[in-house]
Design goal:
The chain folds into two domains: 149 residues, Beta Polymerase, domain 2 (2-Layer Sandwich), CATH 3.30.460.30; 139 residues, Rossmann fold (3-Layer(aba) Sandwich), CATH 3.40.50.720. The protein is built from 14 helices and ten strands. With 410 residues, it is α/β, with parallel strands linked by helices. Strand 2 and strand 3 form a beta hairpin. Helices cover 57% and strands 14% of the residues. Strands 7-6-5-8-9-10 form a six-stranded parallel beta sheet. It has a four-stranded antiparallel beta sheet with strand order 2-3-1-4, sandwiched between helices. The protein is elongated, with a radius of gyration of 32 Å.
Length: 410
C-alpha cells in the first residue's frame, strides 16, 4: 500500500489553469474508471471544486499520476507539471486532513470543503474504486475533521464582511427565522449575505436592484420577492434587517426615508448594514433612535478579530491532525507487517512441503529413518532461520552505525 495525492489548487495555480483540470460530477466516474484501469493503480478518489482538483490513489508509480491527470484532460504534461504537487505517505495523509478541516482553503476554516470531500468519496465508492487503504484513510479524515470542529473554534468566527454582517444580525435578533431582510444590490457580497442568512434560518427576503431581472434571479434561489430600486422607501418599514451593497455613486437610503419607516414600525429597532463603498446609507441615519447602522469600517475590526481567532484555532487543529496522522501511519505500518508475515508464512509452508517430500522419498528408498528425520529437522531449521537472521544482522548493523561517533579520537 502506498498513498499518493496529485493536487492542483489555488495555492499553486491561477484560475485559468485550474479550470483546465476541473471535472463535473458527471465526469468523475469516467475519470475514476480510467485511472483504476491503468496498470499499477489500485484505488482512486477524485475531488474537484472551484479551488482545487486532487487525485487520491494507492500506487507505487507516483511519477505516473501527474502524467495521467494531464493525459486525461489532453494537456501537455511538461507545460502543466509546475502547477502540480505530489504528496506521499505521511505528507499525503496530513494534506488531506488539513484540506478536510479547511486549513488549506482560501478562507481559513470554511466548512464547505468537507462536504465536497464526502461527496467525492461517496462517488468513488459507488464507482467501485475505493479499497482498504482509501476507505480507512477517508474514515480517519472525517473523524479527524469532526474532532477539530468540536474541539476548536476554527469555524466559529466570521472572517468575511458578509458573514460578519450576518453574525451581527443573528446576535442582534437572536432568532433570524422570525425576521425579514431587505437586500439591496445584486453582486457577490449580496449573494454571500443572503446565503448566510438562509443558512441561519431566515426565509423572508425582499431583493431590490436597479436591474429588476437581477433581483428576480435571487427569488428563484431563495424565494421571497423582487422589487425595483425606487420602491425601497415604501417597503422599508416591513423589514428588520437591511443589507446594502451597490455601486451607486450617491446614497440610496437617506435620513428622511428611514425616519418615516421608523414611524410605521412603532419604533421597533431597525438594523442597517452598509457594505458599499462609497456608502449607500447616509451617515446621519445613525443619529436616529432605534436605528443601528454599521458600515464596512465598523465591521472591519470584527473581521480581523475573527481571522485572528481562526489562526489561533488552526494551531490547535494542527496538533489534532498530527495525532491522527501518526495513528493512521501506525495502521499503515501494520498492514505492511501483515503482508510480510503472510509472505513469510507462505514461503515457510513451501519449504516445509519440499523438505517433507525429500524426507518421504528417502524413507521410500529404505534410508535410516532416524537419519532422515535428523536431516529434515536440520535443513528445515536452517532454511526457516535464514531470512530472519539476515534481517536481524542488517538492523543490528544499521543501529551500530548510528551509534558510532562521526569522528573517532586517536
Amino acid at each position: 500500500m502506498a498513498l499518493v495525492i496529485c493536487s492542483i489548487s489555488h495555492r499553486n495555480a491561477p484560475i485559468d489553469v485550474r479550470e483546465q483540470f476541473a471535472l463535473t460530477p458527471q465526469e468523475w466516474p469516467i475519470a475514476l474508471r480510467d485511472l483504476a484501469g491503468q496498470a499499477g493503480f489500485n484505488e482512486a478518489v477524485i475531488l474537484s471544486t472551484c479551488h482545487r482538483t486532487e487525485v487520491f490513489c494507492d500506487t507505487l508509480h507516483s511519477h505516473k499520476l501527474a502524467a495521467w491527470l494531464c493525459d486525461f484532460h489532453q494537456l501537455d504534461v511538461e507545460q502543466y507539471l509546475p502547477y502540480l504537487t505530489l504528496y506521499t505517505d505521511a505528507d499525503a495523509v496530513r494534506h488531506v486532513m488539513q484540506t478536510a478541516c479547511g486549513l488549506d482553503s482560501m478562507i481559513l476554516g470554511e466548512p464547505q470543503i468537507l462536504g465536497q470531500m464526502k461527496q467525492a468519496y461517496a462517488q468513488a465508492q459507488q464507482t467501485g474504486t475505493v479499497g482498504k487503504l482509501l476507505n480507512r484513510l477517508f474514515q480517519t479524515v472525517f473523524f479527524a475533521a469532526k474532532t477539530v470542529r468540536s474541539q476548536t473554534a476554527i469555524g466559529a468566527n466570521p472572517v468575511s464582511v458578509a458573514s460578519t454582517a450576518v453574525k451581527l444580525a443573528e446576535d442582534f435578533f437572536t432568532d433570524l427565522s422570525k425576521q425579514s431582510a431587505l437586500l439591496i444590490g445584486a453582486g457577490d457580497t449580496i449573494e454571500l449575505s443572503v446565503k448566510h442568512l438562509y443558512e441561519h434560518g431566515m426565509r423572508k427576503f425582499t431583493f431590490a436592484n436597479r436591474t429588476f431581472a437581477k433581483a428576480q434571479a435571487f427569488t428563484q434561489k431563495y424565494q421571497g420577492r423582487a422589487v425595483a430600486l425606487p420602491m425601497i422607501s415604501s417597503i422599508l418599514a416591513q423589514h428588520d434587517v437591511v443589507i446594502s451593497a451597490t455601486t451607486s455613486a450617491t446614497p440610496i437610503l437617506g435620513k428622511g426615508c428611514v425616519e418615516r419607516a421608523l414611524q410605521w414600525r412603532d419604533n421597533r429597532p431597525l438594523l442597517l448594514i452598509d457594505l458599499a463603498m462609497p456608502r449607500d446609507i447616509e451617515p446621519e441615519v445613525a443619529t436616529l433612535k432605534d436605528v443601528h447602522l454599521y458600515d464596512v469600517d465598523a465591521l472591519h475590526d470584527q473581521v480581523q478579530a475573527g481571522i485572528k481567532a481562526r489562526q489561533q484555532a488552526a494551531h490547535l487543529a494542527m496538533r489534532i491532525i498530527n495525532q491522527h496522522v501518526a495513528l493512521f501511519m501506525q495502521w499503515l505500518g501494520t498492514q505492511s507487517a501483515t503482508h510480510i508475515i503472510r509472505s513469510y508464512r507462505q514461503e515457510s509452508e513451501r519449504m516445509r512441503d519440499l523438505e517433507l517430500e525429500t524426507a518421504l522419498q528417502a524413507l521410500h528408498n529404505k534410508q535410516d529413518p532416524q537419519e532422515v528425520l535428523t536431516k529434515l529437522a536440520h535443513r528445515l531449521t536452517n532454511k526457516l532461520m535464514h531470512q530472519p537472521t539476515v534481517a536481524l544482522r542488517e538492523v543490528t548493523l544499521e543501529l551500530s552505525e548510528q551509534l558510532l561517533p562521526d569522528e573517532v579520537a586517536v
